[in-house]
Amino acid sequence: MLTLYYTRTSFYSRFIWLTLLEKQLKFKLVALKLNGDQFAEEFIEISPFSRIPALVDGEISVIESSAILDYLEIKYPVPALLPKDPQILAKVRMVQTVTNNELLPGLMGMLIHRKDILDYQYAQKRLNNVLDFFEKLLINNTYFAGEQLTFAEIVAGNLIPYFPKFNIPLDRYPQLNRWSENLLLRKSWQEMQLSQEELINFKRRMKVMPKIIQKRRRERVKIGKNV
Length: 227
Fold this sequence. Notes:
Low-confidence stretches: none
Strand order of the largest sheet: 2-1-3-4
Shape: globular
Radius of gyration: 18 Å
Strand content: 5-15%
Largest sheet: 4 strands, mixed
CATH architecture of the largest domain: Up-down Bundle
Number of helices: 10
Number of strands: 4
Number of domains: 2
CATH class of the largest domain: Mainly Alpha
CATH topology of the largest domain: Glutathione S-transferase Yfyf (Class Pi), Chain A, domain 2
Helix content: 55-70%
Structural class: alpha+beta
């Protein structure tokens, strides 16, 4: 059986979780608390860099979210979450990459910084540019690939439907708003819906993320010295 090591509010964990649900695979979830669980010796054997998500499939351990997605798509190809048409495939990959490289950093910047500083304004501009791009990319389609749900939804759909709860309205983006509402009706999205308390804790965690990152680096250095 597949085993996913994850944290409920982890963006990268959640789109692996969604993929498992959409492919209707049997799997077990192992939740880690990122205040030390990730440095346990048994987990380091699975994920040498102490990061989630990590997927175990029999004797194979796969780390890094993009590698896990590719692994699941090739080994469990039905239902397909990647289109065959090269132009549509390029669109899906663009959505995946832009979400990771632009949208997520933009959201984090808006949650971390005060509105009156330049870093917030830059993050907001970054996020709005992505939403403008995605709105045009969707056209009037049900999904980015037309009628086929793909990794574009799995990845971007892990963030955008939550924007109104982060006080980022989607009123200016009718296509994205419709798309988001449709995703939230799916059984898989409903199964992993975050509670209001989890969202509040997520926002609090984002505000102290720079300190958390520094703490994790110190912990990893300490572990390395003790080996």
